[in-house]
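[Solved] Which block belongs to which protein?

Original post:
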Amino acid sequence: MFGGLGMWELVVIFGIVFLIFGATRIPEIAKSLGSAIKEFKKSSKEISSDEEEVAKSDSDKKKS
């Protein structure tokens, strides 16, 4: 299923997370995790576009 984890393993993991953090903090944690993932993806796209620009400018210099 998810990286080799079955349904029961996920249920146990979610149960433990629920017991540790409680019902009120889980939405806050999920929101923070979502924001972090979004920021990471944005940064990796910026790095990729920067690398493409450098490669393009290098190939343009070689042609000249």
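(Second protein starts here: sequence line, then its structure tokens.)
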Amino acid sequence: MFLLTACGEPVARNTGAYLLLDTSGTYSQELGKAEHIINYTLTRLGPSDSFAVARIDTGSFSEKDIVAKVTFDDRPSTANRQKRRFSEQIAAFTRSVKSSPYTDITGGILQAIEYLNEKETGRKVIFIFSDMKEDLMEGYIRDIPLELDGFEVVALNVTKLRSDNVDPRQYLDRLEGWKTVVEASGGNWRVINDLDRLEKLLGR
């Protein structure tokens, strides 16, 4: 969907959303909540919008980690079939997924940036369903600049680790660290932990 500017240049008004699913350790037990969020997001997206869901695992900068992806057709009946198929793919994934030993969040964000830039949507939103504790396998390099100008990054269901209960500063520092990274890279950062208020997901 495009609008014309005063100069006659088309401006994209569609939305691209990319949701990263943490499948590491005990956090994989939270995937039922993620499925609910994904199904809600499907109801909020319309014609020409794009949506992809990918897992966060040991090495997340890979198309192979994309679980489902779609660009919705302009025809409502076709778009509804696409949404049903997408939901079925996610349900099958959450039933069969195995826990990952490592958590490459940065790699997942890099893959999300690449995907959404290729879609050239007017709005670009990266959802991260994770405790936001990055744990990289030895040898993986992720000290890489993130190009997040024009991106919204939304952390979802950021659960507290056992160590966070001992020292809450760890939890607060973890969130503040990601906020700093995202905003220094030109992005907009939000955290949504209240999953009873899902209308905030794609709210401005």
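Accepted answer:
You had them paired correctly. Confirming on the second one: Residues 40 and 168 are 31 Å apart (CA to CA).
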